[in-house]
């Protein structure tokens, strides 16, 4: 129980206080692996993370688009694109890809959507939480000589199929850039680079509002997040087997 007038500390705040006490009493540095620090700097672990955005797309189907991503750790993902007619959504439920037009599921998923797995993995890598327990991934902190320019710290993530990702962090251990392979069905494929900026507090999580993407050095799209939903209680494993849930 917290005494009246005394604000309880978050897990990350307690860790910082502990570090200060150790340094004060022993002079020793208090360190944790970069992945743990980055999750704490963001605001803590996530079970799910959704975002609703508008995006200026420069490649494939240029124009201004509106979409929503719903992600459940470690590998459930839905991408819903708003159109003038019915919403279109692609969902991966951990086993198979499904395609929905409005509230109806198409019995046969277009062959091109089989590559949706690379978008699932990109989302899993950049959300961070699944990396600590994924047996297919090896995570290594890069030395100063190996880091991307301007990165205060960086991680390399390698999968057993050879895919390699690099995550760059600022001095506050926030993820500010990422790079790795991607296949966007019917649109583009290559090595994607993303930058994250304009961080703001959302329900206790420090999340970016502006995300810019390029593929093989060419501009892909610039995304402006209208709203984040961290740990949405409406998202569960069964959510990705059906059409998207309408939000108010």
Description:
With 248 residues, the chain is mostly beta strands. The chain has one domain (44-241): Clam (outer membrane lipoprotein receptor (LolB), chain A), CATH 2.50.20. The protein has helices at 11-26, 34-42, 117-127; strands at 48-57, 63-72, 76-82, 88-92, 97-101, 104-105, 137-141, 153-159, 164-169, 175-184, 188-202, 205-215, 218-230. A 13-stranded antiparallel beta sheet has the order 6-5-4-3-2-1-13-12-11-10-9-8-7, with helices on one face. A hairpin with a 5-residue loop joins strand 3 (76-82) and strand 4. The longest helix has 16 residues, at 11-26. The radius of gyration is 19 Å and the shape is globular. The two termini are 35 Å apart. Mean pLDDT is 84; it is low at 1-30.
List the helices and strands and how they pair.
Layout: H1 11-26, H2 34-42, E1 48-57, E2 63-72, E3 76-82, E4 88-92, E5 97-101, E6 104-105, H3 117-127, E7 137-141, E8 153-159, E9 164-169, E10 175-184, E11 188-202, E12 205-215, E13 218-230
Antiparallel strand pairs: 1-2, 1-13, 2-3, 3-4, 4-5, 5-6, 7-8, 8-9, 9-10, 10-11, 11-12, 12-13
Descriptive terms for the model:
248 residues, mainly beta, outer membrane lipoprotein receptor (LolB), chain A, 13-stranded antiparallel sheet, 3 helices, globular, disordered N terminus
Cα end-to-end separation: 35 Å
CATH superfamily: Lipoprotein localisation LolA/LolB/LppX
Instruction: State the CATH topology.
Output: outer membrane lipoprotein receptor (LolB), chain A
Helical proportion, percent range: 10-25%
- SSE-based structural type: mainly beta
Q: Which architecture does the CATH hierarchy give at level 2?
A: Clam
The radius of gyration is 19 Å
Provide the β-strand percentage band.
Answer: 35-45%
Q: Helical stretch count?
A: 3
Into how many domains do the coordinates divide?
1
Instruction: Give the topology string: H per helix, E per strand.
Output: HHEEEEEEHEEEEEEE
Shape: globular
Order of strands across the widest beta sheet? 6-5-4-3-2-1-13-12-11-10-9-8-7
Mean pLDDT equals 84
List how many beta strands DSSP finds. Answer: 13
């Amino acid at each position: 129980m917290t005494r009246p007038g005394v604000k309880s500390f978050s897990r990350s705040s307690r860790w910082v206080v502990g570090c200060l006490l150790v340094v004060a009493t022993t002079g020793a540095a208090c360190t944790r692996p970069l992945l743990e620090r980055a999750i704490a700097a963001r605001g803590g672990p996530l079970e799910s993370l959704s975002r609703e955005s508008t995006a200026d797309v420069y490649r494939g189907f240029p124009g201004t688009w509106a979409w929503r991503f719903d992600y459940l750790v470690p590998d459930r993902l839905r991408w819903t694109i708003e159109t003038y007619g019915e919403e279109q959504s692609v969902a991966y439920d951990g086993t198979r890809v499904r395609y929905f037009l409005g509230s109806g599921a198409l019995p046969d998923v277009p062959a091109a959507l089989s590559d949706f797995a690379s978008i699932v993995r990109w989302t899993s890598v950049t959300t961070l939480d699944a990396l600590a327990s994924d047996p297919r991934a090896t995570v290594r902190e890069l030395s100063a000589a190996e880091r991307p320019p301007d990165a205060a710290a960086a991680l390399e993530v390698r999968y057993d199929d050879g895919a390699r990702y690099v995550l760059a962090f600022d001095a506050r251990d926030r993820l500010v850039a990422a790079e790795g392979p991607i296949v966007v069905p019917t649109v583009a494929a290559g090595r994607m680079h993303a930058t994250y900026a304009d961080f703001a507090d959302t329900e206790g999580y420090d999340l970016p509002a502006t995300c810019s993407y390029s593929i093989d050095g060419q501009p892909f799209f610039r995304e402006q997040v209208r709203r984040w939903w961290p740990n949405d209680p409406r998202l569960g494993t069964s959510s990705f087997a059906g059409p998207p849930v309408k939000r108010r």
